[in-house]
């Protein structure tokens, strides 16, 4: 399996996916993919920050797929990952990317066009 963990704000699907927060409105779902490298402090911070960002600032339902490139390095090609951590907004299109641990929430919102 390619993912380490996936989180969905709207429901648990019974396949190891976890619920995170609550749906704030019935908008279209967002599909995010976080590429990390193992259980490093930067990876942990990125995961914490993306969850916090989504829970506090994103009003749409969201699915966060976490891909550990130490376990699945071949998946880096798929989204043209050159550094980790990298967050990729798959949906809504167009695809957007941001490299780093997402500690600057305002910058991340702007770069990923997640602001209302």
Q: What's the layout of helices and strands?
A:
Blueprint: E1 5-8, E2 18-19, E3 30-36, H1 41-57, E4 62-68, E5 86-91, E6 96-99, H2 105-111
Parallel strand pairs: 1-2, 3-4
Antiparallel strand pairs: 1-4, 3-5, 5-6
What does this structure look like?
This protein is α/β, with parallel strands linked by helices and 116 residues long. The chain has one domain (5-111): Glutaredoxin, CATH 3.40.30.10. The protein is 21% helix and 26% strand. It is built from 2 helices and 6 strands. The chain has a 6-stranded mixed β-sheet with strand order 2-1-4-3-5-6, covered by helices on one side. Helix 1 links the parallel strand 3 (30-36) and strand 4. The longest helix is centred in the middle third of the chain and has 17 residues, at 41-57. It starts with a strand and ends in a 5-residue tail after the last helix.
CATH class: Alpha Beta
Return residue spans where pLDDT drops below 50 for at least 5 consecutive residues: 1-26
Under CATH, the homologous superfamily reads Glutaredoxin
Quote the CATH topology. Answer: Glutaredoxin
Structure classification: alpha/beta
What gyration radius follows from the Cα positions, in whole Å?
13 Å
The largest pleated sheet is described as:
6 strands, mixed
Strand order of the largest sheet: 2-1-4-3-5-6
Broad shape:
globular
Q: Assign a percent range to the helix content.
A: 10-25%
CATH architecture: 3-Layer(aba) Sandwich
Strand content: 25-35%
Count of beta strands: 6
Number of helices: 2
What's the N-to-C terminus distance? 34 Å
Order of helices and strands: EEEHEEEH
Mean pLDDT: 78
């Amino acid at each position: 399996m390619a993912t380490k963990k996936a989180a969905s704000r709207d429901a648990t699907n019974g396949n190891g996916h976890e619920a995170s927060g609550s749906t704030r409105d019935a908008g279209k779902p967002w599909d995010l993919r976080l590429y990390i490298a193992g259980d490093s402090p930067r990876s942990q911070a990125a995961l914490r920050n993306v969850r916090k960002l989504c829970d506090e600032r994103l009003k749409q339902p969201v699915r966060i797929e976490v891909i550990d490139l130490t376990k699945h390095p071949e998946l880096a090609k798929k989204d043209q990952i050159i550094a980790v951590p990298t967050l990729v907004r798959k949906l809504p299109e167009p695809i957007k990317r941001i490299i780093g641990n997402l500690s600057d929430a305002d910058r991340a919102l702007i770069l990923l066009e997640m602001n209302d």
